[in-house]
Hints:
By secondary structure, this protein is mainly α. The protein has 2 domains: 4-149, no CATH class; 156-239, no CATH class. The protein has 10 helices and 4 strands; from the N terminus they run E-E-H-H-H-E-H-H-H-E-H-H-H-H. The protein has helices at 21-49, 55-79, 85-90, 104-117, 119-132, 138-143, 156-164, 182-195, 202-215, 223-239; strands at 4-7, 13-16, 92-96, 145-149. The strands form 2 sheets. Strands 1-2 form a two-stranded antiparallel sheet. Strand 1 and strand 2 (13-16) form a beta hairpin. Helix 2 (55-79) crosses helix 4 and helix 7 (156-164) crosses helix 10 (223-239). The longest helix has 29 residues, at 21-49. The radius of gyration is 24 Å and the shape is elongated. The chain starts with a strand and ends with a helix.
Amino acid sequence: MAxxxxxxxxxxxxxxxxxxxxxxxxxxxxxxxxIYGFVVSLIIFAFQFGRHLQEEVFVFLFFxxxxxxxxxxxxxxxxxxxxSVGKRVRKIKILKLDGTExxxxxxxxxxxxxxxxxxxxxxxxxxxxxxxxxxxRLGDIAAGTTVVKLKPKVTLNDLLxxxxxxxxxxxxxxxxxxxxxxxxxxxxxxxxxxxxxQKDSPMLDQLAEKVKQHLRIQTPDKSYVFxxxxxxxxMYFTSQE
Length: 241
C-alpha cells in the first residue's frame, strides 16, 4: 500500500504508512472481545443473581450492556486520542489528513458511518480501504481522516545522541534555534529518521527551507547538514539552561 502524504500545520509533508487491513481487523477483533466480554459478564451476573434482582435492575443492566456496544468506539477514540484499545495494541492511530488530531465532529462522523462500513462482516470497509490507497474506510473519507501506523516518538535519548557525537568544545552555529519549540525539533528528528541515509531529498529541502524562513537564517549548507546542525545547536543551548 502506498504511503500517505500528510501536510502538517507547519507546512511540512510527512509520509506515514497506512494501517494495513490486517492491523485494522485485528484491532477490531480485540475491541469486540472487550465489548462482548463486558456484555457476557453482565449476562452471567444477571443469571447468577436474577432471583434477587428487581425489574428495574434488569432494565438498567440491559441498557448498561447496550452502552459499550453503541458508544465504545466513539468514546475510546475521543478519550484515547484517536485510538481504541485494539488500535493501541496494534500501534495504529487515527489522524486528520493535515497531520492534526481529529476534531470531535470527525470522530462523530466516523462513528456514525461505522455500521455502513461493517455491513456484511466489514466487507464494505475492506474493499474501500484496499481501493482507496490512503487507508480510509467510508467514515474516514467523510471525516477527512485516515488510520496510520505509529512511528516511535522521539525520545530525549534520540536528541541526546546528537549531543554525544559532538566534542565538549562544540561551538553552536545558529543561536536562533532557541526560538524553536520541542515539537519543531521532534518534527526535524522524525523527518531525518524516516529518510535514513537519504541526504538528498525534496522533503529535506522543504523542511530546511521552512526552518530557515522561520529563523531568518541564510546559509549555503545543504539541507541535511543544516538540519543536523540545528539539532546539535538546540541540544547545546538547552543543556546550558
